[in-house]
UniProtKB/TrEMBL annotation:
It comes from Caloramator fervidus. It catalyses: Hydrolysis of terminal, non-reducing beta-D-glucosyl residues with release of beta-D-glucose. The active site is at E166, E353. It is an enzyme of class 3 (hydrolase). This is Beta-glucosidase. Belongs to the glycosyl hydrolase 1 family.
Length: 448
């Protein structure tokens, strides 16, 4: 018996990104990107792993799609590698790159699987980094040029488009903390990057509208449910600031057309506020069809005099965690969805990522019994279901991830897949969680 039934047209999918699965880093004319460069520098990544081969999905895409089909997965979110299309970031087009994505899209459609494309999942062409990367407004224009070509080539085949994946991660992890490519550590640069990324988003949405294509377009943000460590005034303020830093900065810009006043004031005092015009904000505010959100965990924060620059630090609670060290907190997904619904006009939402890394093992029967992952997914889906019942316009759910893959700074040490990848043989093993998810999709809901 299906106990929790989702809406009839609910989108069930899985997600991946190009650098994390494709490999073939120098095949068929692909240019170098910032993750190729960043991973080549010793000390940046766990055991100096890189995405040169990854899951070799570039060559194995057809058999991977067969697995999607076998599991009954009807929607697949993936990203395009910008440097496969424009090896230098702009100008000269690499036809082999276009042909690859055309083959991929057609192979999906042949099996009745709907593609959802992310245009930017962090792999900026290195040539563009060499002229300043996202700090340079030219890169904003090159992104529009790249998007335009993708819309012309694939706009009629692909019903869902995502401009950017997680601008917060790109700007903060890449340009303030330096743990992601391009490895810069400067908050002022990071906020400039965030602004230009948002601007490029708005311009691309506008372009999409002007081409009168039939699909939907949005952006994906990594959002966190923010909790304060105590009810003290200082901790409550810390939570408000962290919410402004991670969530509202991006949400308000995109959906309200202005950055939040409290954060503007704070960033100004810290001398890290980027320059921007009213026109910029109008462009960023271009109407989107849906908001994509990636949810993994919550953040519990406290006031901390010594924490630069926000005077906020994170608490490490002694609660159950995934292999990433992230607290398992399903209720945060519900909290987030309800808040978005209330504060942003009941906007249509897609969960574009949710999932968990665990230290999976292949047992003596050759199986991966990942009941801990099923538990994680089950509990999060239940919260999504509750949110729908309470009126949230949640339209779909993409599980991160289809395959085990290159987990950025953590290399191959973290496994998020519902399909296990043996990196020595490239053999795929369907985990129990994949069979479980397959049933969820078949039933359009959760059974007890
Ligand atoms: C996503 O990033 C990415 O889109 C995807 O490529 C990646 O593989 C996947 O999730 C799994 O990591 O950073 O300690 O403050 C998620 C990035 C993770 C950033 C949670 C914020 C909060 C905890 N987010 N993180 S911490």
């Amino acid at each position: 018996m299906v106990k929790y039934k989702f809406p009839d047209d609910f989108i069930w999918g899985v997600a991946t990104s190009a650098y994390q699965i494709e490999g073939a880093y120098n095949k068929d004319g692909k240019g170098e990107n910032i993750w190729d460069r960043f991973t080549s520098i010793p000390g940046n990544i766990y055991k100096n792993h890189n995405g040169n081969v990854a899951c070799d999905h570039y060559h194995l895409y057809q058999s991977d799609i067969n697995i999607l089909k076998e599991l009954g997965i009807k929607n697949y979110r993936f990203s395009i590698s910008w440097a496969r299309i424009f090896p230098d970031g702009y100008g000269k087009v690499n036809q082999k790159g276009i042909e690859y994505y055309r083959r991929l899209i057609n192979a999906l459609l042949d099996k009745g699987i709907q593609p959802a494309i992310t245009l930017y999942h962090w792999d900026l062409p290195q040539e563009l980094q060499d002229i300043g990367g996202w700090t340079n407004k030219k890169v904003v224009d090159y992104f529009v040029e790249y998007a335009e070509l993708m819309f012309k080539e694939f706009g009629d085949l692909v019903p869902i488009w995502i401009t950017h994946n997680e601008p917060w991660v790109v700007s903060i992890l890449g340009h303030a903390w330096g743990v992601h490519a391009p490895g810069i550590k400067d908050y002022k640069i990071a906020l400039k990057v965030a602004h230009n990324i948002l601007l490029s988003h708005g311009k691309v949405v506008k372009l999409y509208r002007s081409m009168s294509l039939k699909g939907k377009i949005g952006i994906t943000l990594n959002l966190s449910s923010i909790h304060s460590a105590t009810d003290s005034e200082k901790d409550l303020l810390a939570a408000k600031i962290y919410d402004g830093f991670m969530n509202r900065w991006f949400l308000d810009a995109i959906l309200k057309g202005s950055y939040p006043e409290d954060m503007k004031k704070l960033y100004n005092e810290l001398n890290i506020l980027p320059q921007f015009s009213d026109d910029d904000m109008k462009i960023i505010n271009e109407r989107i069809d849906f908001l994509g959100i990636n949810y993994y965990t919550r953040s519990v924060v406290k006031y901390d005099e010594n924490a630069y620059p926000l005077k906020v630090s994170m608490l490490d609670l002694d609660n159950p965690k995934t292999d990433m060290g992230w607290e398992i907190y399903p209720k945060g997904l519900y909290e987030l969805l309800i808040n978005l619904h209330k504060n942003y006009d009941g906007i249509d939402i897609l969960i574009t990522e949710n999932g968990a890394a665990f230290n999976d093992i292949v047992n003596y029967k050759g199986k991966v019994v990942d009941d801990y992952r099923i538990d994680y997914l089950y509990r999060h889906l239940l919260e999504a279901y509750r949110a729908i019942c309470d009126g949230v316009n949640l339209k779909g759910y993409y599980l991160w991830s289809f395959l085990d893959n290159f987990e950025w700074a953590e290399g191959y040490s973290k496994r998020f897949g519902i399909v296990f990848v043996d990196y020595n043989t490239q053999k795929r093993i369907i985990k129990d969680s994949a069979y479980w998810y397959s049933d969820v999709i078949k039933n359009n809901g959760i059974t007890e």
